[in-house]
TrEMBL record:
This is Probable cytosol aminopeptidase. It comes from Dendronalium phyllosphericum CENA369. It catalyses: Release of an N-terminal amino acid, Xaa-|-Yaa-, in which Xaa is preferably Leu, but may be other amino acids including Pro although not Arg or Lys, and Yaa may be Pro. Amino acid amides and methyl esters are also readily hydrolyzed, but rates on arylamides are exceedingly low; Release of an N-terminal amino acid, preferentially leucine, but not glutamic or aspartic acids. Presumably involved in the processing and regular turnover of intracellular proteins. Catalyzes the removal of unsubstituted N-terminal amino acids from various peptides. InterPro entries: Leucine_aapep/pepB, Macro_dom-like, Peptidase_M17_C, Peptidase_M17_leu_NH2_pept, Peptidase_M17_N.
Length: 493
């Protein structure tokens, strides 16, 4: 699908379907829209009245117009109240319109949308993102595509002439989100630690990043006993992935993004039981997927910021080599961990990744992880938990999430709860009591960051959606990529 900018006035645009964005309580047609209504023999006014259309956010109605016009169909899209218009409202409204256009078998779609915040660049980018993210279909694992109907071929943004940079930005970001969706959606027999390492290598080759893959022996030399403890039951080799984007000049900031990369989480000897969702645990590399998706986007956007993309990738499996409940592991910072639950494996892999990143002397580290079911209980499926002792990084990420429309909510780092992780024999246990389980997980991670401002995002909920939601179709969402990109770009300003 090609997104184009059109300098044609609304009344002169020719194509299959025209999508018009309207504000709630302001559906009377004025100016150009009144003229269009007249040209179409009053059909728009009639449609609004008949369907009692009030332009509530993301509501859509459409109609066929008489033959002989430049367009065949019109979609009216609700934008909600003007004072409540967010950038993400534009993205979602564009997605809703694109879905209707696709269903109506349109090949060409024109968008006539008002500006968000008087900002044509941001608005054009949001429309381009919403449209492409909503219409992406994953047919890699079907022997034959089910949807054989016509595909949307071109999308024209009316009134956005000159915004090429915004469209390019959107396309680069969307390519990263789609990579993340593909990595998460692929089953664990298709995406393994080896695949993740190969994906990192491909990003490096395609977009000029540096890449280093540490094999098991090198991780042993670095003392990554926590990561390797998790990896030891798998027949697949663990891969410690380190991709680096370096800008041409002096970087304004140096950052790290770390993603939990469990390509499958069986639970280990504390095996996940019936009803635990074990069959969905291919998603447990959603953090790594977001990290690689962000790397793909950043590699193309080329900001003045150095970014390290890191994942300690492995599977959590069962075999005669498996770590046992009660085993003690030593992480690369020398801290010892009593593994009282082998299903709390993500934090063990992240521990060594955090120590590695902390030693790079960076300005900030953000990790993303499908870390706990407790976070889903606390915040539901749509919202990631943000855990950080650092108010600056917290507000940077909150701002980035506002721009991306990906929901995050800051949670407390209640130090007292660390008592739940006290071990009689080692420095700490990997699992505390059930209450506050996402908080103790974050407090565990904190033990492995010494000097660098750090934040952790628990994305166990939003990594996946069972039903269509905004510009996400059911399945992998690619959650995190857009917030990370926005965060990195923001720190370079
Ligand atoms: N990968 C899971 C967390 C998870 C749960 C992700 C649901 C996505 C959806 C993680 O490794 C895990 O098993 N966590 C345990 C921790 C417990 C043993 C302390 C959990 O949340 O139950
Ligand atoms: Mn687990
Ligand atoms: Zn896990």
């Amino acid at each position: 699908m090609a997104i184009q900018l059109s300098d044609k006035p609304l009344l002169e645009w020719a194509g299959d379907t025209l999508a018009i964005g309207l504000f709630e309580d302001a559906v009377e047609l004025t100016g150009e829209l009144a003229t269009l209504n007249e040209k179409l023999a009053g059909v728009l006014k009639e449609l609004i009245a008949e369907e009692e259309f009030t332009a509530k956010a993301n509501s859509t109605i459409f109609t066929r117009v008489a033959a002989g016009n430049l367009i065949r169909k019109v979609i009216l899209v609700g934008l909600g109240k003007p004072e409540a218009l967010k950038l993400d409202s534009v993205r979602r409204a564009a997605a809703a319109a694109a879905r209707v256009a696709k269903k109506q078998k349109s090949k060409t779609l024109g968008f006539s949308f008002p500006l968000w915040n008087n900002d044509p660049g941001a608005t054009a980018q949001a429309i381009a993102e919403g449209t492409q993210l909503a219409l992406y279909q994953d047919i890699r694992f079907k022997s034959e595509p089910e949807d054989k109907g016509p595909q949307l071929e071109t999308v024209d943004l009316l009134g956005f002439a000159g915004q090429e940079a915004a469209i390019n930005r959107a396309n680069k970001i969307v390519s990263g989100v789609i990579l993340a969706r593909q990595l998460v959606a692929a089953p664990a027999n298709a995406v393994t630690p080896i695949t993740l390492a190969e994906t990192a290598q491909a990003i490096a080759t395609d977009h000029g990043l540096q890449v280093e893959i540490l094999e098991r022996e090198e991780c042993e030399k670095l003392g990554m006993g926590a990561f390797l403890g998790v990896a030891q039951a798998s027949d697949l080799p663990p891969k410690f992935i380190h991709l680096t984007y370096k800008p041409e000049g002096t970087p304004k900031k140096k950052l790290a993004i770390i993603g939990k990369g469990l390509t499958f989480d069986s639970g280990g000897l504390n095996i996940k039981g019936a009803g635990s969702g074990i069959e969905t645990m291919k998603i447990d590399m959603g953090g790594a997927a977001a990290t690689l998706g962000a790397a793909k986007a950043i590699g193309q956007l080329k900001p003045d910021v150095e970014v390290h993309f890191i994942s300690a990738a492995t599977e959590n499996m069962i075999s005669g080599h498996a770590m046992r409940p009660g085993d003690i592991l030593k992480a690369s910072n020398g801290k010892t961990i009593e593994v009282n639950n082998t299903d709390a494996e993500g934090r063990l892999t992240l521990a060594d990744a955090l120590v590695f990143a902390d030693k790079l002397g960076l300005d900030a580290i953000v990790d993303l992880a499908t870390l706990t079911g407790a976070n889903v209980i606390a915040l539901g499926e749509d919202i990631a938990g943000l855990y950080t002792p650092d108010d600056t990084v917290a507000s940077q990420l909150e701002k980035a999430a506002e721009t991306s429309g990906e929901k995050i909510w800051r949670m407390p780092m209640e130090e007292k709860y660390f008592e739940g992780l006290k071990s009689g024999i080692a420095d700490m246990k990997n699992t505390g009591p059930r209450p506050g389980g996402s908080i103790t997980a974050a407090l565990f991670l904190k033990q492995f960051v010494k000097d660098t401002p750090w934040a952790h995002l628990d994305i166990a909920g939003p990594v996946w959606t069972d039903k269509e939601n905004g510009y996400n179709s059911s399945g992998a969402t690619g959650y995190g990529v857009r917030t990370l990109v926005s965060w990195v770009l923001g720190t370079g300003d």
